[in-house]
Design brief:
By secondary structure, this protein is α+β, with helices and mostly antiparallel strands. The protein has helices at residues 3-15, 21-26, 39-47, 64-68, 78-85, 110-122, 139-142, 159-167, 288-305, 316-328, 332-353, 357-360, 367-371, 373-392, 394-397, 408-421, and strands spanning 30-32, 53-55, 89-94, 105-109, 132-137, 173-178, 183-187, 194-201, 204-209, 249-253, 258-261, 266-271, 275-282. The N and C termini lie close together (12 Å). InterPro entries: Cupin_8 (IPR041667), JmjC_dom (IPR003347), JMJD6_ArgDemeth/LysHydrox (IPR050910).
Amino acid sequence: MDRETFQTCCSLVKSHRPCYEKLCSSHLINYIEKKDFSYSKFFEKYVLPNYPCVFSGRFTEDWNSRKQWVTQEGKPNFQRLLQDFGDALVPVANCNAKEYNANPKKIIPFKEYVAYWKDYIQNGHSSPKGCLYLKDWHLHREFPKHNVYSTPVFFTSDWLNEYWDAIEVDDYRFVYMGPKGSWTPFHADVFHSYSWSANVCGRKKWLLYPPGQEDNLRDCHGNLVYDVTEPILQDKRQFPRYDKSCQPLEIIQEAGEVIFVPSGWHHQVYNLEDTISINHNWVNSCNVDTMWQYLQRELAAVQSEISEWRDSMDNWHQHCQIMMKSCTGIDYKEFYMFLNIISKNRISFLHSFGGDTGSSRIQRPHDLSTLGPHHAVFDLNKVAQVLECVLSNEEFKKLDRDSLSPRPEDLLQKIKEATEKTPL
């Protein structure tokens, strides 16, 4: 991020309120063709306004996965995939079955899935086993030495994976592989994060709805629709607000192309051909407040669900935090730890940028050097804003504050000192 973009974004982030009506009425989406498109333009035109866009195949043409995982005919290279990953265990979902509002999954050997996929193709894309979709495979974590792709610079301000890499527990980097006809039901991504998805081979159809439209796609009980193409949506008794919903943005994503899905946009995705894709979920300074708002809503839902035990259950508030974490993967304490790691990395980077050689020995993401000190300051300013909201939250105040290190007030002070001392 350069100085001009920093100043522009600082002013926009205070006053900007995304307006999606024009985008939905025009059904236009920007297509970024040339590789000289800058990170600063992407940040200003798409990340801050929270608008989707598509990058051309030029941005992935050097990936080893596009060279090695794809045949000359543009199909999945099963021989090479089996050679590299045949014995791996992978999560596979059945697209023909519904479990709550998702497809049930099971873990099977990758070679077993490839055998199924080959039979599925030979039988005219059908099988008595149903349509099976390999989803959410943590290939990057399981095979770190396989250099099959590189994250485009536009998506490198990735706080989620920066945090999980730091604590070495998990990640939000996934590989998807599925036959023609496999699909993902209507949903928004984890924590209402951003996502980017690149087709290594094959084509996808995306149906996207901007934030707020999902409320028109709930049934009379408040449940989100499973499939936005279901005829039952026309039943006003079941879906009383459906006639108020806009038409979705429909995007056909070709092989090699990368789609940016903004924060909180609900979507449904179909594989139009046998397809392999790579996907990251990510959070940064522009949607960390959205993540915090999401967590507050999730906690409120849990508290409402078990409200009858509020007075009779010991440590009721603590139990609510535990239940929320079991549903979302994170609680208020870990959200604070998340903010702390992100802040620590940027404060360390700014110290080394200012000549503090001791701080330069602290390990931090290499992407900070690419994005620069303006971006680090922008990030810290936003962490400080969110942290102030966290500190004033009544449920956060009920946590065991002695277990938090550093104390939230001390972290906030460190952030302010680091940004004030940085010459930009």
